[in-house]
Amino acid sequence: MESNEIRIELSECQRRIILEYGVRFADAELVRVVSVALKKADGYEICTTEEQLDELIDEIAAIADGEPDEAKSELLYEICEYLDACIVESDEHEREYAAYSSNTGCVYVIKAALLDNRKIWRKIAIREGQTLHDLHNMIFDAFDRDEEHLYSFFMPHSGRRLGRTRIYRNSEEYTDPYAAEDPGPFGGGSVNAAKTTIGSLRLKAKDCFYYLFDFGDEWWHEMTVVRTGEEADEGKYPRVIERRGESPEQYYCEEDEYEGDDEEEGGN
């Protein structure tokens, strides 16, 4: 995942204006980023990188400079100012969350398997001083995803496997820092994953928990603790140390869906 991923909430009016002028953008990808925004109660949420956001601001500012209608030009400049402020706020958040993560302590090996097809899995080594947000970022990269979305980890009260329908009411939820700050329909009572270290969870070998990526498409993962207490080497953490199966497309057509498989291959 891009380390400078930024989530921005646009009002319905802001999104409409950007899309209206988007036909003039030199880069069509900027229009797509706005057009696929996630609908929320008070508007839309877009996920982009700081580089893309800078380009978007430049495109809108250039159009505003040449817009003969003074009122429309002013609206475009206001959107530029708003987007620029979002970059500053995002940088502040990243610095805040980084303070909770440290490349220290022993190593945990955790297996992330797609719940609908456990033949597709990745084993990730992560240090106890790093956070669930660090783990999320590694899973994102490990499964070759492109578009960032909200996520949550669910820690069963029993530490054992649960049926999908029982996960919500029988687990402690650790959620995306944006959802934790602005819970909306998803976050009530959840803990900020960016402020939760792996070591603080007191995980043991064979413990099972769950990871949900994208509250719309719902990519569920079964997380199994393979080993704990390993000594760290000089390599980078977190990192993928073993993988099985091709990563499915993040967005796929119904006819391309794979069949669920409850048989686990490769063991813990």
What descriptors fit this protein?
268 residues, alpha+beta, Structural Genomics Hypothetical 15.5 Kd Protein In mrcA-pckA Intergenic Region, Chain A, eight-stranded mixed sheet, three-stranded antiparallel sheet, 11 strands, 27% strand, elongated, disordered C terminus
Q: Would you give an account of this structure?
A:
It is elongated, with a radius of gyration of 20 Å. The relative contact order is 0.15. α3 (50-66) packs antiparallel against α4. The chain folds into two domains: 5-98, no CATH class; 107-256, Structural Genomics Hypothetical 15.5 Kd Protein In mrcA-pckA Intergenic Region, Chain A (Roll). The strands form two sheets. It has an eight-stranded mixed sheet with strand order 8-7-6-9-10-4-5-11. It has a three-stranded antiparallel sheet with strand order 1-3-2. The model is unreliable at 253-266 (pLDDT under 50). It is of the alpha+beta class. The longest helix is centred in the N-terminal third of the chain and has 29 residues, at 70-98. Helices cover 33% and strands 27% of the residues. The protein has helices at 12-21, 28-35, 50-66, 70-98, 132-142, 164-167, 177-181, 184-187, and strands at 5-10, 38-40, 43-49, 107-114, 117-127, 151-156, 171-175, 191-192, 208-213, 219-230, 239-244. The chain contains eight helices and eleven strands.
